[in-house]
Write a structure and sequence with these properties.
mainly beta; 3-stranded antiparallel β-sheet; 40% strand; 106 residues
Length: 106
């Protein structure tokens, strides 16, 4: 089984390369595939099981999460973590402190 099949990637977008440029912002291994850098950056980020990013804020605009596979979690500061599954969409406004990542076994 190759890396993309084992991580559930490739079904919608290839998972890309190890996310070394932003590794310090993640707990665990993620992979980054920049789909476009013109205008609004759009990227496919794949999380290995249990991988998540640190608490962070987007100051110059929000973030939209499109869950393309697996299971995970999203949490806003001061609120409970919310489960995520394929086909979920999360619209995160600018200035909202949050994190998101994969479930331990997904």
């Amino acid at each position: 089984m190759d890396r993309e099949t084992s991580l559930g990637g490739g079904a919608v977008f290839p998972i890309g390369e190890k996310n070394t440029a932003y590794a310090k912002y993640f707990i665990g291994q993620s992979y980054l595939n920049m789909l476009t850098t013109e205008g609004i950056a759009i990227c496919n980020v794949t999380f290995e099981p249990g991988c998540r990013n640190n608490w962070h804020i987007h100051h110059k605009g929000g973030q939209i999460l499109l869950v393309t596979g697996g299971r995970g979690y999203y949490q806003e500061w001061g609120k409970n973590a919310q489960p995520l599954k394929a086909e979920d969409i999360v619209n995160i406004p600018s200035e909202v402190k949050h994190w998101h990542g994969a479930a331990k076994n997904s």
